[in-house]
Amino acid sequence: MSSFQKETVLSVRHWTDSLFSFTATRDPGFRFQNGQFAMIGLEVEGKPLMRAYSMASANHEEALEFFSIKVQDGPLTSRLQKIREGDIILVGRKATGTLITGNLIAGKRLLLLSTGTGLAPFASLIKDPDVYENYETIVLAHGCRQVSELAYGEHLVEGLRDHEFFGPLIRDKLVYYPTVTREPFRNRGRITDLIASNQLFDDIGQSALDIGTDRIMLCGSPAMLEELHAMFSARGFVEGNHSQPGHFVIEKAFVER
């Protein structure tokens, strides 16, 4: 298992019956760009059982953090959700992924559109000082079914607002937009519908989607990714990648299991 580093779980927090986050030690040699993912997992019967997970921690932080769904019959998450402080997890030595700012052409407003645990790479990105240098406004939209599922994102943004360094940056630049689909809440509806109708932009008091200034990152359910990909492509937005930056990027590496 030389491809993996053994790390020690430092903390675990269960946000709902279906969502949890955890932190672990970080090997000093493990490098990544904010927004990337690595393979993480557990040793099961002497073999590594691994899945792709975005780092929710920023690359300047000493510990690693991950945000995960619980799948009761999932090969990995059925086990991973039971980890405790002091347990050992495996972390791949190489990070990769498309959700990095270098895959976008220069713009003024950065839209980070997520559903469920797709919030994780954006948790990393909004702790990156360079993002605030490169964009005038960052809009973090997080869609969930129920209000309780927003807790991790709300805790994250609240902590950054109170942070000595990030607080002033966020007050001026970061707009947090949580929305739910199955319960009463101040923002209601699917992110796809809220963008198509311009409701999201009306709610935050900003101009509608503009190909000249808007750059977009997407991470979430396959249905959301497919629908928004079609919507943006129809409006002339070009998908970016490592070889050719574009107007938007999508992370396709995740299957919730």
Descriptive notes:
- The longest helix is centred in the last third of the chain and has 13 residues, at 222-234.
- This protein has eight helices and eleven strands.
- It has helices at residues 77-80, 120-125, 129-134, 151-161, 166-173, 191-196, 199-203, 222-234, and strands at 4-14, 19-24, 37-44, 47-54, 64-69, 88-92, 109-115, 137-144, 174-180, 214-219, 248-250.
- Strand 10, helix 8 and strand 11 (248-250) form a beta-alpha-beta unit.
- The protein is globular and about 55 Å long.
- A six-stranded antiparallel β-sheet has the order 4-3-6-1-2-5. A five-stranded parallel β-sheet has the order 9-8-7-10-11, sandwiched between helices.
- The relative contact order is 0.17.
- The protein is of the alpha/beta class and 257 residues long.
Task: Kindly name the structural category.
Answer: alpha/beta
- Quaternary state reads single chain
- The share of residues in extended strands comes to 25-35%
Whole-number radius of gyration?
18 Å
Termini gap:
22 Å
Q: DSSP helix count?
A: 8
Q: Any low-confidence stretches, pLDDT <50, length ≥5?
A: none
Mean pLDDT: 95
Order of strands, widest sheet: 4-3-6-1-2-5
In total, the number of strands is 11
> What's the story with the biggest beta sheet?
6 strands, antiparallel
Q: Report helical residue fraction.
A: 10-25%
Secondary structure layout:
Elements: E1 4-14, E2 19-24, E3 37-44, E4 47-54, E5 64-69, H1 77-80, E6 88-92, E7 109-115, H2 120-125, H3 129-134, E8 137-144, H4 151-161, H5 166-173, E9 174-180, H6 191-196, H7 199-203, E10 214-219, H8 222-234, E11 248-250
